[in-house]
């Protein structure tokens, strides 16, 4: 299967309808795709990124279906195997092809794949290759989401091929974005799970791309943006320092005490007209939690005490929040204990990356007394005051 993007530019990748997890970690509720692009010039041809190697035969069949007889350049924007993994197989079929990568990507490709050093040529930021009537320019766009990442820009057509950058894990038969809200959510999930820890560097990449006229963004996951303002504006918003007045509440309860406290907290926030997003960690899609952390001002964890510390599900959520480095400004903890423990200290120790103002936690003995619920009232007042001053 191949699909025409523009004259002599084809999408030759794979739609992975049924993949459920990425990195055995990240839920993929909508599957994904591994996009690869064939660009034909008057003299030379290029492939931009390849596909997950499990699908290499389908990928090679796509090229056969298209009638590709010669490949001069295999451009590796990103060394991760879902894009690079089929390069050795492609080189077996097209041994004359030259792999082009960033300086940092070359040793990574050699570490990850069965390739020889002389099969890979390093290209510099701003360097171009001429396909004959078509010019590909390489733009260093590091840390989206590995250190070696670059984008490829087709000058004559103003098409950016940024690999993971701007991508979405979305299996769809739409070659181009048709359902904006569906793609927006998938792209936000992708940003939250993959890109958010590198928010400040991505800001610089976005600023760099402002020097380019971009009519189309063709990422290596998800549909192509033929109206790229949508995703460029979304990224600008996500990487900005602005937060939304929203309270995210990841919580877990064992015998209902923490649950009662959290329910009261949520109802009090709603009484005050404050947007709240609870996530029961006993049964949560971590991607949904990550999305909510992209722009929420406040996160309040809920956990009982297990063996003197937080519940392991709360530990997992706190660890995740710490590595994702959201721009959250305020945080606290609500929980309960039976006889003793350092639940709040241990949970906070897991989140040194969160540059937040901490409200005093509310920790009840057992199911909680009147004073504990008054403490929740106090917490709600503090949250409200800060949200009014955002
Ligand atoms: Fe889609 Fe970072 O690989």
From TrEMBL:
Family: In the N-terminal section; belongs to the zinc metallo-hydrolase group 3 family.
Signal peptide, first to last residue: none
Gene source species: Halanaerobium saccharolyticum
UniProt xrefs under Gene3D superfamilies: 3.40.50.360, Ribonuclease Z/Hydroxyacylglutathione hydrolase-like
Protein name: Flavorubredoxin
Annotated TM spans: none
Record domain Flavodoxin-like: where: 247-390
SMART domains to which the protein is assigned, alphabetical: Lactamase_B (SM00849)
GO molecular function list: electron transfer activity; FMN binding; metal ion binding; oxidoreductase activity, acting on NAD(P)H
């Amino acid at each position: 299967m191949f699909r025409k993007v523009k004259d002599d530019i084809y999408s030759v990748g794979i739609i992975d309808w049924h993949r459920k997890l990425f990195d055995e970690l990240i839920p993929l509720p909508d599957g994904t795709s591994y996009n690869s692009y064939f660009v034909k010039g008057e003299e030379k041809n290029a492939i931009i990124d390849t596909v997950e190697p499990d699908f290499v035969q389908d990928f090679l069949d796509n090229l056969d279906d298209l009638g590709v007889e010669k490949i001069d350049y295999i451009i590796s924007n990103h060394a991760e195997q879902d894009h690079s993994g089929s390069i050795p197989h492609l080189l077996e079929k097209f041994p004359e092809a030259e792999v082009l990568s960033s300086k940092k990507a070359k040793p990574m490709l050699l570490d990850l794949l069965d390739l020889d050093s002389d099969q890979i040529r390093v290209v510099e930021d701003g360097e171009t290759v001429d396909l004959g009537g078509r010019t590909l320019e390489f733009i260093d766009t590091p840390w989206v989401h590995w250190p070696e990442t670059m984008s490829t820009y087709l000058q004559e057509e103003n098409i950016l091929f940024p690999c993971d950058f701007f991508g979405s894990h979305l299996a769809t038969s739409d070659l181009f974005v048709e359902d904006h809200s569906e793609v927006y959510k998938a792209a936000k999930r992708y940003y939250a799970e993959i890109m958010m820890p590198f928010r400040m560097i991505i800001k610089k990449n976005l600023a760099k791309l402002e020097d380019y006229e971009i009519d189309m963004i063709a990422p290596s996951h998800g549909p192509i943006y033929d109206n790229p303002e949508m995703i460029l504006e979304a990224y600008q918003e996500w990487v900005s320092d602005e937060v939304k007045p929203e309270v995210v509440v990841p919580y877990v309860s064992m015998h209902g005490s923490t649950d009662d406290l959290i329910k009261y907290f949520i109802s009090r926030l709603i009484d005050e007209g404050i947007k709240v997003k609870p996530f029961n960690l006993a049964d949560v899609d971590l991607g949904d939690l990550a999305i909510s952390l992209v722009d929420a001002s406040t996160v309040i964890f809920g956990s009982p005490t297990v063996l003197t510390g937080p519940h392991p599900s709360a530990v997992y959520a706190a660890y995740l929040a710490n590595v994702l480095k959201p721009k959250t400004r305020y945080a606290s903890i609500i929980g309960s204990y039976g006889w003793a423990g350092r639940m709040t200290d241990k949970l906070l120790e897991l989140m040194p990356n969160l540059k937040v103002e901490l409200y005093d936690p509310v920790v009840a003995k057992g199911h909680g007394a009147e004073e504990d619920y008054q403490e929740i009232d106090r917490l709600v007042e503090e949250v409200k005051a800060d949200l009014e001053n955002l």
